[in-house]
């Protein structure tokens, strides 16, 4: 961030800045209001100025999150491998849910490259609007069998962007767009406000729509029986997320796997002290990174299926073959 009086960059927590601007703006109910705060760092501004500051700040943050940058397109390889392995799960299991706090579109770009259909809560072709009920939909195709059965399409994932996205723009709610949220291509110079949610400083802060609906679905997914949560690249700085994970640990069949090269948060330290077999922590330069996790930990179930079929074939051949020393009749 740049100070008007100095060209030197200021080291600040961008999300903290956004959170502060949002709180100041929420104190002014009308667009023509004025905010005056006394203190060591006095504030005297208007609602219109705050709206413009929020627009510019979110656009600046979104520009940094517009990944991959030119010349580093190879960074999508890990995301592609990650998606390929996720899609090897048996089709009789529930769809994989990918919950992300990132604003970037790396998952979407990798999915496009791999031909993966993302159920991301948006519907529409010319105009994509948020409809969370669309998460309940699924894709099937008719099988070419006499029974006329249908089969689930295998290249489908559910994507939940809990903190918004650089492609989400906010508008006024209407009958055909009840949340007022639309997904478009990222435009760094666009005039519409982006829906990028700053990490709340306190758990008590209220989550507005559509974030409250997305977090509700996150909580519901974790508290289902036999759920497993893989936490990758998250520093446990959002108390809303942390509370949902704590609640999920009350479910006996819940398992959490934390992937972090050097976990330092008090939350992870508290989990480690529990010595709970349902809590796994992968750390270090290999197992603690997304690339290392995908390569060394996340299984490719297609390989496992091939091994099982090879072993079954060997066993069948062994049973059908005569034992050593035996001869067939007539020899």
Compact description:
With 331 residues, this protein is α/β, with parallel strands linked by helices.
Major sheet attributes: 5 strands, antiparallel
Would you count the extended β strands for me? 17
**Structural class by SSE content:** alpha/beta
Tell me, briefly, the overall form.
globular
Report the mean per-residue pLDDT as an integer. Answer: 81
* SSE string, helices as H and strands as E: EEHEEHHEHEEEEEEEEEHEHEHEHH
Termini separation = 89 Å
Helix proportion: 25-40%
How large a portion of the residues is in β-strands, by DSSP E? 15-25%
- Low-confidence runs: none
Q: Helix tally?
A: 9
Rg over C-alpha atoms, rounded to the nearest angstrom: 25 Å
Give the count of structural domains.
3
The strand line-up of the biggest sheet is: 7-8-13-12-14
Keywords:
alpha/beta; five-stranded antiparallel sheet; three-stranded parallel sheet; 9 helices; 17 strands
């Amino acid at each position: 961030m740049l100070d008007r009086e100095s060209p030197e960059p200021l080291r600040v927590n961008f999300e903290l800045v956004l959170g502060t601007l949002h709180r100041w703006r929420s104190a002014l109910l009308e667009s023509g209001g004025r905010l005056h705060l006394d203190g060591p760092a006095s504030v005297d501004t208007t609602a219109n100025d705050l709206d413009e500051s929020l627009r510019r700040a979110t656009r600046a943050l979104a520009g940094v999150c517009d990944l991959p940058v030119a010349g580093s397109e190879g960074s999508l390889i890990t995301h592609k491998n990650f998606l390929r392995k996720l899609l090897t799960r048996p089709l009789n299991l529930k769809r994989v849910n990918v919950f992300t706090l990132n604003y970037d579109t790396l998952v979407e770009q990798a999915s496009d490259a791999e031909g993966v259909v993302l159920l991301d809560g948006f519907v529409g072709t010319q105009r994509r609007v948020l409809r969370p009920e669309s998460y309940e939909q699924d894709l099937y195709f008719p099988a070419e069998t006499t029974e006329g059965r249908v089969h689930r399409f295998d290249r489908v994932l559910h994507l939940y962007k809990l903190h918004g996205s650089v492609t989400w723009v906010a508008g006024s709610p209407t009958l055909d767009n009840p949340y007022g949220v639309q997904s478009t291509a990222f435009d760094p110079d666009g005039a519409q406000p982006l829906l990028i949610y700053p990490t709340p400083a306190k758990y008590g802060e209220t989550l507005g729509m559509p974030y409250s609906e997305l977090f509700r679905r996150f909580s519901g997914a974790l508290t289902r029986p036999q759920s497993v949560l893989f936490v990758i690249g998250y520093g446990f700085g959002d108390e809303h997320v942390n509370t949902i994970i704590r609640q999920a640990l009350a479910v006996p069949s819940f398992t959490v796997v934390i992937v972090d090269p050097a976990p330092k948060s008090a939350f992870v330290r508290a989990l480690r002290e529990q010595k709970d077999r349902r809590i796994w922590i992968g750390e270090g330069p290999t197992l603690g990174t997304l690339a290392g996790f995908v390569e060394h930990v996340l299984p490719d179930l297609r390989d496992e299926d091939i091994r099982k079929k090879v072993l079954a074939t060997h066993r069948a051949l062994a049973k059908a073959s005569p034992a050593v020393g035996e001869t067939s009749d007539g020899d």
